[in-house]
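Hi both,

Apologies for the delay on this - the queue was longer than expected. I finally got the magnesium ion-bound model through. Below you'll find the protein sequence and the ligand SMILES exactly as submitted, and right after that the structure tokens for the full complex including the ligand.
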Amino acid sequence: MSKIIAVANQKGGVGKTTTAVNLACFLAAAERKTLVVDVDPQANASSGLGFGPENREKTTYEMMIDHVDPRDIYQDTELDFLKLIPSDIRLVGAEIELVPFENREKVLKKSLQPIRDDFDYILMDCPPSLGLLTLNSLTAADSVLVPIQCEYYALEGISQLLNTVRLVQKHLNHGLQIEGILLTMFDSRLNLSKQVRDEALKFFGEKLFKTTIRRNVKLSEAPSFGRPIILYDITSYGAEDYLSLTQEIINHEQ
Amino acid sequence: MSKIIAVANQKGGVGKTTTAVNLACFLAAAERKTLVVDVDPQANASSGLGFGPENREKTTYEMMIDHVDPRDIYQDTELDFLKLIPSDIRLVGAEIELVPFENREKVLKKSLQPIRDDFDYILMDCPPSLGLLTLNSLTAADSVLVPIQCEYYALEGISQLLNTVRLVQKHLNHGLQIEGILLTMFDSRLNLSKQVRDEALKFFGEKLFKTTIRRNVKLSEAPSFGRPIILYDITSYGAEDYLSLTQEIINHEQ
Ligand SMILES: Nc1ncnc2c1ncn2[C@@H]1O[C@H](COP(=O)(O)OP(=O)(O)OP(=O)(O)O)[C@@H](O)[C@H]1O
Ligand SMILES: Nc1ncnc2c1ncn2[C@@H]1O[C@H](COP(=O)(O)OP(=O)(O)OP(=O)(O)O)[C@@H](O)[C@H]1O
Ligand SMILES: [Mg+2]
Ligand SMILES: [Mg+2]
């Protein structure tokens, strides 16, 4: 049983990378074989897992554009059950280089095909856009996990994202499901946070994860040490919330 | 005297739109003829100024792809000296449609040429990527204003952005300057904010604006009413900080 999840939202700074990295680490802690594929040229997921520019010799770029076998690319991380395919700035060029490819939206799906059954979960961290890299991820995925910051602009962009998901379902990937909508950076002292939560509940109902990720400075400190929250501060609210999200995802397995 | 400023940073959610909208409004309040060009398909600057999907008949897309005269596109706003060229989701297609254009990076520069002298300031709100829309903005601009959130990932992406700026200066726009680096969402209670500020001061020195934008919930509430901070809550820290930034920009005029 292997599940490929795209973590996507074209709105910037909503917690895509923080979610991809920390969910992957708790899945690995629960002994699920997990792979993170960094599909963002900013390579934040790579550095969030401790892989600086010196550790990114072979990346998502080589896998997609040069058709290098992913088994020759993914690297071990500090967690036993977690591997990473890093990214780097060369991936910026891929958005343009993919344009003349035949089936340009299916390149990533083809790349991941050979390793699909080596893992229980493959999580793709997407860039903040609806361009070819995100389209490739949505086409390769079984489901999409959508983080939404508890802010007005983040809520506004959702209909654009859901339209894109519907187009992908219709033309590129009939089986694409919505894994869930995740509220992030929730601050219980702010009315805005509560308003966005109420709107999201009305709009998404069951599709909204029961877990809400609270705003927690430990989550934004951890990347500066190249460590996920499970290794940086397991006692924090951030760790508690991402563990609870992981339990929800694992419960979907049945 | 007319100045075209690109507000850009490929890192998502760092305060590009909040800066473009609120700086433009205070410039207009200081009776500078100001135009906001929304170059982001998310159209957050458009909605932050009160222009919902129903008010975006002609947009940046028509100006760039169909070569419609910008005088037939820009609209009046609630502020006398402020106009807006809105955006909408069709602009997502422009990233791919521009690829075969001759001089594909200079399309926006050509579009804005006829109206350049109608304004004292033209501010372009860029999407969170280094793709063709941002390259077009950097090529059309006299200077680039770079908002940086007081977080680790935001600081990490700066070298990628500065490399891109150098490439644009070398090949596309020799005159491109750096207007300044702006720290946003600063929270004086957090060590992380202070650390990022110290790093930024060391790294950028003079290029760092003296003004730091503090985290202020009023700034994130205002867009849900379609109003900039000057109309939503002039007494807030957010308004105070963006006024102070405006004074710094106006002092650069001499
Ligand atoms: N729950 C949280 N509490 C506090 N800070 C958070 C939280 N989640 C994320 N952050 C911080 O907020 C910033 C944005 O988060 P992140 O980079 O994960 O978003 P993103 O959607 O991946 O951004 P991009 O659109 O640039 O890819 C980061 O600096 C991160 O450390
Ligand atoms: N100083 C501030 N204090 C509090 N909230 C802020 C501040 N500046 C911006 N915000 C909020 O943070 C979120 C991100 O800001 P904004 O949308 O302006 O960033 P952006 O860089 O334009 O994002 P994108 O990369 O998606 O274009 C928004 O919800 C905004 O309302
Ligand atoms: Mg990210
Ligand atoms: Mg924006």
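Main takeaway for now: The two ends of chain B are 11 Å apart (CA to CA).

I'll put the files on the shared drive as well.

H.
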